[in-house]
Write a structure and sequence with these properties.
Largest sheet: 8 strands, mixed
Mean pLDDT: 90
CATH topology: Rossmann fold
Number of helices: 10
Structural class: alpha/beta
Helix content: 25-40%
Strand content: 5-15%
Protein name: Alpha/beta fold hydrolase
Distance between the termini: 53 Å
Number of domains: 1
Organism: Bradyrhizobium rifense
CATH superfamily: Alpha/Beta hydrolase fold, catalytic domain
Radius of gyration: 20 Å
Shape: globular
Keywords: Hydrolase
Order of helices and strands: HEEEHEHEHEEEEHHEHEHHEH
CATH architecture: 3-Layer(aba) Sandwich
Number of strands: 12
GO molecular function: hydrolase activity
């Protein structure tokens, strides 16, 4: 019993840069390193079951094995937060937290971080389930007078209800109302087994353990408010009711073009994460094109452009999804480990410059201005 209490006490300790806060009714474990006000601020959206610490690491780890180290070297800022799950470092859980409420809390953190300082680009990097937030976050930022320069997928799942269905609810809810991330299986492995497999592959590549399996379980793992997955047509959990198609799509705001930012993607190349390796370029590229059709092209009035300008606009929009993709060796955790983290930072710089060039071109038509 004493050992368990000691473990829980050590798990509850906050890392350097972390702070607890409450935004409205949403408890938040946040990490903020503002960086150079003249450089972008990265908002890291963590995935399901893993705390935002995966972007900045734990005490005693090699700092260079985590993305924050490389962002700091480039002068970029990092803002991230872990949703109120059941990890001891989180003072309160909130199993009823919705996507919209979480997006509003993150937007408030961004506004607080930026304060009254100079305008700077906001780049959201969504990892895995963090992609489910992209439309809600874009909307929440807009309500605060802010805008994303772009969204970058790190193996991100898009915010669309699945249409393929399934025979039985594949996920389990804990007695505390949170989603038990350890229960789900895919390709014959549980999530915990797949995550440990990923970390072992990174350790072999780096020549040392980046996150020891025991530390990963005690310092990084948490369970998740179920609604952060977003609405589904079929039941994801036992006891859920089926949703009518139009209701689910409206609730997800799947076709609200106002909320479609320019989307880039850093895509893994390993077969362990074959779904993202094969689909991410097409998925996030299509969102980019749909967003541009709604938010840029409609305001430009293509029929009134000269032939030269129309061809320039057409070429850039058709080519942009390809320009906004970078590939990296590795699987779902490709941005962890010094090699992956440093390469990810290099790609973020390239992608931001690509977005800036595109927005400068778009802004030249009819005086249209976009946020970069």
């Amino acid at each position: 019993m004493a050992d368990q209490q000691q473990l829980r006490h050590s798990q509850a300790a906050l890392f350097k840069g972390e702070h607890q806060s409450a935004i409205g009714l949403v408890p938040v474990l946040a990490y903020c390193r503002p960086g150079n006000v003249g450089k972008p601020l990265v908002l890291f959206l963590t995935g399901g079951g893993v705390m935002a610490r995966i972007a900045y690491g734990h005490p005693g780890a090699n700092a260079s094995d985590f993305l924050d180290h490389w962002l700091e070297r480039g002068g970029w800022g990092l803002l991230t937060a872990t949703y109120p799950g059941d990890h001891p470092a989180l003072t309160t859980s909130n199993p009823d937290l919705t996507l919209d409420d979480w997006a509003a809390a993150l937007a408030a953190l961004v506004a607080e971080t930026l304060g009254s300082g100079p305008k700077r680009p906001i780049i959201a990097c969504g990892w895995s389930m963090g992609g489910k937030l992209v439309f809600a976050l874009t909307r929440a930022l807009r309500l605060k007078g802010l805008a994303l320069a772009c969204f970058v997928s790190f193996c991100a799942t898009p915010p669309f209800p699945r249409l393929d269905g399934g025979p039985i609810p594949p996920e389990r809810m804990l007695p505390n109302g949170l989603w038990d991330l350890s229960a789900g299986t895919r390709d014959g492995l549980t999530r915990d087994e797949r995550w440990q497999q990923e970390l072992l592959a990174i350790a072999n590549l780096e020549g040392h353990s980046v996150v020891d399996p025991d530390l990963f379980r005690s310092l990084y793992r948490t369970n998740v408010p179920t609604a952060l997955w977003g609405p589904e047509l079929d039941r994801l959990f036992e006891g859920q009711t089926y949703q009518e198609l139009s209701c689910a799509l409206r609730k997800a705001r799947s076709f609200s073009g106002d909320d479609y930012p320019i989307c880039a993607a850093v895509v893994p190349m390993d077969s362990r994460d074959y779904r993202h390796a094969l689909a991410d370029e097409a998925v996030w590229g299509s969102i980019t094109v749909q967003g541009l059709l709604h938010n840029v092209v409609a305001k430009v009035a293509p029929g009134q452009l000269s032939t030269h300008d129309w061809l320039r606009l057409r070429e850039r929009i058709i080519d942009l999804p390809r320009r906004l993709v970078r590939h990296l060796p590795g699987g779902h955790f490709f941005f962890v480990g010094a090699r992956g983290a440093s390469a990810t930072m290099s790609h973020l710089v390239d992608l931001h410059e690509e977005v800036q060039r595109a927005c400068e071109l778009f802004g030249g038509f009819k005086g249209l201005r976009t946020s970069t």
